[in-house]
Amino acid sequence: MDPLSDVFALLKVESALSARVEAAGPWALRFPAYRHVKFGGVIEGPRWLWIEGSSEQVKLNPGDFYLLTDGRPYCFASDLAAPVLEGVEVMAANLCDDGVVRFGAGQPHTIGAGGRFVFDQEMSGWLVDLLPPVIVIRGDSPQARSLRPALELVQLETKTIRPAAAVIAASLASIVLVNILRAHLASDVPPVGWLGALGDPKIGEALRYMHAEVQRNWKVADLATAVSMSRTSFSERFRAKVGLPPLEYLTRWRMTLARHVLRSDTDTLATIANKIGYDSETAFGLAFKRMFNESPGRYRARMRVAGSGPSKPGSQILAPTFEA
Domains, the chain, ranges and CATH? Predict the structure, then answer.
């Protein structure tokens, strides 16, 4: 798998929630702070989006998708002059029997659907911390090509309550999220940090090598040769793009994998060490303690007491809450 797929494979989704909102006339709604990632798409009619405390107001048009990632309260509006009401209260009071929220009268008429993801806290930094507060993918942009069919499915699935709706919604939301990130990577202003490095021809290739053969005893010279660069140029470019030296990045990814396995499987410490590239349980233990200030065995015991292992990765779909 590629690095982004690797990270998603370990991102245990604690919740994926969605709702459809059909609103008419002038309105403005404020929604409270949230964890990790909010997402949505505009099905019909324009609307405005802004983060509380920010002067930047983004106009969204039909076909546009957005991600919100910094956790601050945010607002949607059809009219910037409309009084701002509490969104959760308005939506709870206007929830219809078919699961759609409808309120207001007159023009303009807007329809949108959205929700949120809450990820495993220990893995979320690989993704959430590297994203800007707002990502907007315009529906008429070349990058949105793969999102257009997803928006049609969002529209179909949110029109009314259907059998197995929660399962479909969770899967569809994941497709939307991945495709928004792909579009963001392909945009004219690529992201910074690890996520942006995936789009760099040389550094992205090096990251794929490290993820594909995490157990290999990589040297910086080996990676530089693999991507046809000098050792010095590769090291400088890798650090500039990723924010870490190559082998430090590799160590952090290995330790991330180790924590996942320690929580989800019953493999021995020696087996885990071998799988992620350490010659001995001792070497693995020293590297783990150096990074997390506790031994692998102690970490595994603490996670089991906390009730998080051993288990297999998966999704937990909770009852919908009200989101724009």
Answer: 3-189 (2.60.120.280), 195-305 (1.10.10.60)
